[in-house]
Each structure stands twice: as structure tokens, then as C-alpha cells.
Specification:
Elements lengths: L1 E2 L4 E4 L2 E3 L6 H12 L5 E4 L11 E4 L3 H12 L4 E4 L6 E3 L9 H11 L10 E3 L3 H7 L6 E8 L3 H11 L4 E6 L11 E8 L4 E8 H17 L9
Parallel strand pairs: 1-4, 4-5, 6-9, 9-10
Antiparallel strand pairs: 2-3, 7-8, 10-11, 11-12
Bound molecules: cytidine-5'-triphosphate.
Cytidine-5'-triphosphate binds next to helix 4 and strand 9.
């Protein structure tokens, strides 16, 4: 499982990130442990206590999460990727703090003195897409989608593009859903195109509902035993 945000450093004092707290991923880890799974939780920076018994791998950036996830992915039955991974990172990370005065001088020289600065960003690897490419027979891959637009259409696109078995999509910006909230509302779209509404509920209830759906997909594979 992956959870939480990633941080993409600009310099030792600044980074680019997002409001993910990791609550959904940690709730899923706790629920999978309660069901008897061996759980590895690859977590970006959060303030949450990891559930007892979890194998916790702490990472900061998308590149670190990529390496940790690919290390683990081939040996597991179920992959759940709740992490809100930054899609871009600054091309260069300054070793020492970038000083305002130096930026001001540079911006005055290069931009006609309007005080603005710009930063080149480069794409981070899409972790889930790579895990999907390397998917082993019998593995179940569950992705998440944070959307402001059409939930179902975007979920289905991500499911196909990343070779997933299920996508859980939730709306960002709505009260009681998504980032920073203790509750969530979502739809799950599976590889058969089946949609399941997951109405507003606590993130621990949602973890139970998501694992019930994932277990059902898992059980369709003959001769396998559920685990994470
Ligand atoms: N994801 C990932 N690596 C990335 C970006 C996303 O593994 N570099 C995973 C997330 O953990 C999530 C899923 O892909 O399970 C969808 O993430 P989301 O941010 O909703 O979508 P993107 O694929 O980044 O597409 P977009 O930002 O255009 O909606």
C-alpha cells in the first residue's frame, strides 16, 4: 500500500506537495491487518501513527516512493495505491537555501524587473502505471483517483491506462470527502466496468467496503488466497 503525499524539494527549506494526510491509506492498512494480511505500507510524510504490526517504509519524494513500491510490488497479492503522488518535481534541487535577494537580482536581469520568477518542472514516474505494466498473473491492483470532473469517466480511463482491477474515485473540494477529511464518499469502478456507489462514511468503514470489493475480485482468480 502507498499512502500520504509526496514532497518534491525546491531547496532545504521549501517543497511542492498537496493536502493529503494519509488517513485513507492508513485506514486500509489497519483493516487489511485486522483481516490477517501481511501489510507493507509505503508512506509519504504524515502525522499519523502507523497501525501496529505494519511493515512501514517511510519515503519523501515520488522518486523514493517509486523505488520502494517497485521493490515490494512483485511479491504481493494486492496493491492499493492511495498516495497522492506529485506528478511533477522541480528539475533542480538547490543544496542551500535560495535567497530572496539572489532571486530578485536574477529576475530583474532576466524578466525586465517585474519581480516574477519561474521554475522548470520535470515529470515524476507514474508509480501505479509501472506496477500495472509489471503486473503478475493473479495480482489485484487497486488505484485511487482524486477528481474535480466526471468521476466515473476519469476512473475508467485510469483503470484502462494503468492496467488496474479497480479504481476508487472521489471528488476533491466537496465537504466531507477526500483530502484531510475523516469521512469519504466515492465510487468504485472495477475491471468488468461495474460501478459501486460508496456513500458518505468514515474512512475506516470505507476501508472495509474497499477491501470487501477487492477480495471479491481476488476470489475470481482460481486457486489463490487473499492477502496484501
Ligand atoms: N499515481 C502514481 N504515481 C504518480 C501519480 C499517480 O502511482 N506519479 C497513482 C495514485 O497513487 C493513484 C492513481 O495513480 O492511485 C491516480 O492518481 P491521480 O493523481 O488521481 O491521477 P493521475 O494519474 O496523476 O492523473 P491526473 O493528475 O491527470 O488526474
Amino acid at each position: 500500500m502507498t499512502a500520504g503525499p509526496t514532497r518534491e524539494a525546491i531547496d532545504p527549506a521549501r517543497f511542492i506537495s498537496n493536502p493529503s494526510t494519509g488517513k485513507m491509506g492508513y485506514a486500509l492498512a489497519a483493516e487489511a491487518l485486522a483481516r490477517g494480511a501481511d501489510v507493507t505500507l509505503i508512506s509519504g510524510p504524515t502525522h499519523l501513527m502507523p497501525p501496529a504490526g505494519v511493515n512501514l517504509v517511510r519515503v519523501t519524494s515520488a522518486d523514493e516512493m517509486f523505488r520502494a513500491a517497485l521493490n515490494q510490488a512483485s511479491g504481493v497479492d494486492l496493491v492499493l495505491k492511495t498516495a497522492a503522488v506529485a506528478d511533477y518535481r522541480p528539475e533542480q534541487r538547490a543544496r542551500s537555501k535560495i535567497k530572496k535577494e539572489a532571486l530578485r537580482r536574477r529576475s530583474v536581469r532576466s524578466r525586465g524587473g517585474d519581480g516574477t520568477i519561474s521554475m522548470r518542472m520535470v515529470p515524476t514516474p507514474d508509480i501505479l502505471e509501472e506496477v500495472g505494466r509489471r503486473k503478475k498473473p493473479g495480482q489485484v491492483l487497486v488505484g485511487f483517483a482524486a477528481e474535480t470532473g466526471d468521476l466515473a469517466a476519469n476512473a475508467l480511463k485510469k483503470l484502462r491506462r494503468k492496467n488496474l482491477d479497480m479504481v476508487v474515485a472521489n471528488r476533491i473540494g466537496a465537504a466531507g470527502e477526500g483530502f484531510e477529511s475523516d469521512t469519504n464518499r466515492a465510487i468504485a469502478v472495477d475491471r468488468h466496468g461495474k460501478h459501486t456507489e460508496l456513500p458518505l462514511m468514515s474512512k475506516s468503514d470505507m476501508a472495509r467496503a474497499i477491501l470487501d470489493l477487492a477480495e471479491r475480485l481476488f476470489e475470481e482468480r482460481p486457486g489463490r488466497r487473499a492477502g496484501a
